[in-house]
Amino acid sequence: MINKNRKYTVFIIALCTFLLSAWCAHAEETAIVIKSQDLSAYNQVVKGFQDECLKNNITIKSIYDLDGKMKLGQKIVRKIKNEKPDIVLAIGVLAATVLKEEIDEIPIMFCMVINHARFQLTEPNITGISTEIAIEDQLKGFQSILGSFKNLGVIYDPSKTGNIVAIAENKIRNVGMNLVKYEISSSKEVSAAMEKLIDKIDALWLLPDSTVVTKQSFGLIKTTTLENRIPLLCTSDVFVKAGALASVSSAHKDVGIQAARLVGKILKLPTPGSLGIVYPDHLELSVNTDTAKILGLELKVVQEDLKINFYP
Q1: pLDDT in tens, 97-108
Q2: Architecture of domain 29-132+252-282
Q3: Alpha carbon distance 220, 198 (integer Å)
Q4: What is the pTM of this model?
Q5: Alpha carbons 82 and 282: distance in angstroms, whole number
Q6: Residue 208 CB: number of other CB atoms within 10 A?
Q7: Which residues form the signal peptide (predicted)?
Q8: What digits encode the pLDDT tens for the residues 45-71?
Q9: What is the domain partition of the chain in residue ranges?
Q10: I need a labelling partner for 305 at 20 to 30 A (CA). Which of 80, 217, 230, 248 fits?
Q11: How far apart are CA 89 and CA 87, in angstroms?
């Protein structure tokens, strides 16, 4: 009788252990998404994130939109804390900075923050996907259509993109190229900068710098580079669609997919924390074929491991 009871007890323990293991294996982890505003690019990130979370048994409890208003941040943060997700995805700089200031007990993943280093998003609970592409990858993409070139010009405001230029300068020098720099502090100086640079460069690199790039200045930059047969190289396909020659960037939906995969890795850590800042893992080269014709370029050679988009 004692042996039977022992066998029964062992069976019950084994069954409970099995059921608990099975439950843990299938237990869903939860995430919340907060967007800085309702933009098409951000919505594409959300779509990629949703699709990949579904594949990885991660439930998205809520999606919040700050509508570009900092004041909504406090209210939404209270909701997030009440919902107690395992992790929060912040899309855009407003969402990222709000969460950084208000949440330190929940892991945060951010993306779509231009020049993230300016906002010091480096807390123990924060992981991010850089919007900027590694300069080495940008150069490979540009060289795949231009061939080798020596002097890459850049106009920048040190207070906005000085950190990007400083990092890029060393990388560019290491591959035997020159970064020809021109500092400005006002968009009114763009015209003078173009005059100084245009005869000294083989291509112009346009950074996401709000001092340099305005609606008026972009028109001037595009016209001047075309007239002088200088390729205009960018970090976003938005400018390629508007007439720049080429950009190397990440696809927004791919960023969402990558974010979901990183979330999965974070939640599997013994103590969920930070994986640091990573570069996008899927890149695309965008080329304006009309601009290429004006510049006299034959688009025959492209980098095989890059997705290619041709505009218009």
Answers
A1: 999 999 999 999
A2: 3-Layer(aba) Sandwich (3.40)
A3: 12
A4: 0.85
A5: 35
A6: 18
A7: 1-27
A8: 999 999 999 999 999 999 999 999 999
A9: 29-132+252-282, 135-249+284-311
A10: 230
A11: 7
Number of Cβ atoms within 10 Å of the Cβ of 5: 9
Q: Which residue type sits at 151?
A: N
Strand partners, 204: 153, 232
- Give the chain's mean pLDDT: 90
Cα first-last separation, the chain: 84
